[in-house]
Amino acid sequence: MDQKHINNVSGLLKTMSHPIRLKILCLLMEKEMTVGDIRAEVKTTKANVSQHLTILRNQGVISFRKDANFIYNRIADDRVLKLIHSLRDLFCK
Q1: Are 55 and 43 a contacting pair, CB within 8 Å?
Q2: How much is the pTM?
Q3: Whole-angstrom distance, CA of residue 33 vs CA of residue 16
């Protein structure tokens, strides 16, 4: 693995390593969710959830789609989805 790949993976893992962002990714692994849906599961403020979603979005980890007045968030990178599945399999049984 060359230095560019190492830096990219390191940045991705840093982004994912925050407990709230990791929980958000675990939730999004199953389905698309709105900020309100995520806030209810994570038990924090809407502003805090939005801040973490922005960080994940800026790193290309998640994307969103608009449907009327709702914004649905989802994992955008299949590699991240596979990684979250692997982490769950390894540590959540």
Answers
A1: no
A2: 0.91
A3: 18
Which domains are delineated in the chain?
3-91 (1.10.10.10)
* Token pair of 60 as six digits: 């290309």
- Which residues is 66 bridged to in the sheet? 71
Residue whose C-alpha is closest to residue 63's, from 49, 52, 53, 51 = 53
Helix axes 3-16, 78-91, angle to 10 degrees: 60
Q: Could you read off the pLDDT of 62-78 as tens digits, one per residue?
A: 999 999 999 999 999 99
Q: Which two tokens stand for residue 82?
A: 């596979």
33 DSSP β-pair partners: 73
Rounded to whole angstroms, how far apart are CA atoms 58 and 48? 16
3-state secondary structure of 61: coil
